Amino acid sequence: MSRGHPHDFPAAAREALADAQLRANLRGATQTIRARRATAVAELPDFEELREQARRVKDDALGRLDELLDEFQAAAEAAGARVHRAPDAAAANDIVAGIARDHGVTELVKMKSLATDEIGLDAALAAAGVEAVETDLAELIVQLAGDTASHILVPAVHYSRGQVRDLFVRTIARGQELSDDPRDLAEVSRLYLRERFLRAGMGVTGANVGAAETGTVCVVENEGNGRMCTTLPPLLVTVMGIEKVVPTLDDLGLLLRLLPRSATGERLSSYVSLLTGVTPGDGPREYHIVLLDNGRRNALADPVGRQALRCIRCSACLNVCPVYTRVGGHAYGSIYPGPIGAILTPQLWGMERYAKLPFASSLCGACAEVCPVGIDIPQVLLHLRARAVREQAPAPERALFGAAAWAFGSPWRFAAAQKAGRSAEAPLTRGGLVRRLPAPLAGWTQGRDLRPVARETFREWWTRERGAEAP
Amino acid sequence: MTAAVDLFVQRLEAQKTEVRRVAASGVAAAVAGVCAARRTGRLGVPPGLPAEWRPAGVAVVEDHDLTPAELDALDAALTGCTLAIAETGSLVLAAGAADGRRALSLVPDVYLCVVAEDQVEPDLPAAMPRIAGLIREEGRPVVFVSGPSATSDIELQRVEGVHGPRQLVILLVS
Amino acid sequence: MRVALFITCVADTLFPETGQSVVRVLERLGHEVVFPAEQTCCGQMHVNSGYRIGALKLARRFVDVMGRDDGVDAVVSPSSSCVGWVRELLPGVAREAGQEQLARDAEALGGRLFELSEFLVRRLGVEDVGASYPRRVTLHPTCHSQRVTRVGDAPQRLLARVRGLELLELPEAAECCGFGGTFSIKNADVSLAMLADKCANIVATGADVVTAVDPSCLLNIGGGLSRMGASVKAVHLADILAAEGAS
Question: What CATH architecture applies to the domain C136-242?
Answer without folding.
Answer: 3-Layer(aba) Sandwich (3.40)
